[in-house]
Write a structure and sequence with these properties.
The chain has 269 residues and is of the alpha/beta class. The protein is 45% helix and 13% strand. The relative contact order is 0.14.
Length: 269
């Protein structure tokens, strides 16, 4: 298996952390040792039942196990060799992306309404399941849908194009419909637990901003919205690095709210 090996949280038990505390961490979506190291002390203390002393002990044990320090450039190069590139189904787009949608990274696709963003997400649901020799990810797909645009019948047709069984492809897709930005964040915690149990190659969020536009209105709530969005993107980045998965997000281009407030042409356009 050439995925980046991750240490499951259960390994901390061998370093004196009790099983009850490990269960609390899992409930909060922290299922790997690296996931613990990626969390701040404040975040860990907010988990119900974990005191500051316990958190310090957990962090110390995690550091021992994961060795979260510096590595040489050569060691990092070896780590980068585990990166998987998933084809988009279009050779020209793959070329543009340097070989496809990369794991351990977030790839954003943006454009106006009806430019094919969701179609690309549907295609990736299939190509991510192709074997690696066919430029696939050879893993399952998690799909978070914020706009209700996921169509399984389309997936079945795309699977035919790649010579795969439509029903088998659909069985390997975990789908969730998000209704609020908070729900969207909770779903990321839920999928983290699934990623320890099964091999995933791709996580799709279509689209990342739709619910934020609804939950936060006007410029008065802009800073709060950006903070929540920053947290969401940070969580996605951490998931991609922990499990060596590709994260693909779509985003809709909206008009510039300050665009009509000036008579001077924007030099960038």
């Amino acid at each position: 298996e050439d995925l980046v090996p991750y240490n499951e949280i259960a390994k901390l038990q061998g370093l004196g952390i009790n099983a009850a505390d490990l269960t609390k961490l899992k409930t909060a979506g922290l299922c790997t040792v690296l996931g613990v190291l990626m969390s701040t002390k404040k975040e860990l203390c907010n988990i119900k039942g974990l005191s500051e002393a316990k958190v310090e002990k957990i962090q110390e044990a995690a550091s021992k196990l994961e060795g979260a320090g510096f590595m040489t450039g050569q060691e990092f190069l070896q780590k980068r060799k585990h990166v998987v590139k998933i084809t988009t189904g279009s050779s020209k787009l793959d070329e543009l992306l340097g070989g496809g949608v990369e794991s351990m990274a977030i790839t954003e696709c943006f454009g106006e309404f009806r430019t094919g963003k969701t179609q690309l997400c549907h295609t990736l649901c299939v190509t991510a399941q192709l074997p690696k020799e066919m430029k696939g990810g050879n893993g399952k797909v998690a799909y978070i849908d914020t706009e209700g645009t996921f169509r399984p019948e389309k997936i079945a047709k795309i699977a035919e194009r790649f010579g795969l069984d439509g029903d088998a492809v659909l069985d390997n897709i975990l789908y969730a419909r998000a209704y609020t930005s908070e729900h969207q964040y909770t779903l990321l915690t839920a999928i983290a637990a699934k990623m320890v149990e099964e091999s995933f190659s791709l996580l799709i969020v279509d689209s990342i901003m739709a619910l934020f536009r609804v939950d936060f209105s006007g410029r008065g709530e802009l800073s709060e919205r950006q903070q929540c969005l920053g947290k969401m993107l940070s969580r996605l980045m951490k998931l991609s690095e922990q499990y060596n998965i590709a994260v693909f997000i779509s985003n809709q281009v909206m008009s510039d709210p300050g665009g009509g407030m000036t008579f001077v042409a924007d030099p960038k356009k």
